[in-house]
Write a structure and sequence with these properties.
Distance between the termini: 29 Å
Order of helices and strands: EEEEEEEEEEH
Organism: Haloprofundus marisrubri
Domain DUF8134: 1-103
Radius of gyration: 13 Å
Protein name: DUF8134 domain-containing protein
Oligomer: single chain
Helix content: under 10%
Shape: globular
Bound molecules: zinc ion
């Protein structure tokens, strides 16, 4: 089953099956060595760029600004939720998010 993922309102929302699920303004702690020089970035989400799916994991690339070092850039693919049996499941986005590239390296 394919669940439609769309970026809405000029990057303000990720909608999954026409329901808004992930929005800008969240603070994500993530491991993405290409993003900034911090060991772990603490990024305020400013714009959602592109959604994707890796298995059951819904991922997104977003423009974030790191509140530690000030870097503003586009992240690698970060996990933001899961699709289980065709339904959206939130993941804990207040925990550490591992970028797709860093997960695959392990
Ligand atoms: Zn940083």
């Amino acid at each position: 089953m394919t669940v439609p993922l769309r970026i809405q309102d000029d990057g303000a929302w990720l909608s999954v099956d026409d329901q808004r699920r992930v929005g800008v303004g969240e603070l994500w702690r993530f491991y993405d060595p290409g993003f900034c020089d911090c060991d772990l970035a603490d990024g305020v989400v400013e714009n959602l760029v592109e959604p994707g799916v890796d298995g059951r994991t819904v991922e997104i690339r977003a423009v974030c600004q790191c509140i530690v070092c000030g870097t503003k850039a586009t992240t690698d693919w970060l996990p933001v939720g899961r699709i289980v049996d065709g339904e959206w499941r939130d993941i804990d986005r207040e925990g550490l998010l591992l970028s797709n590239a860093s997960r695959k390296r392990e």
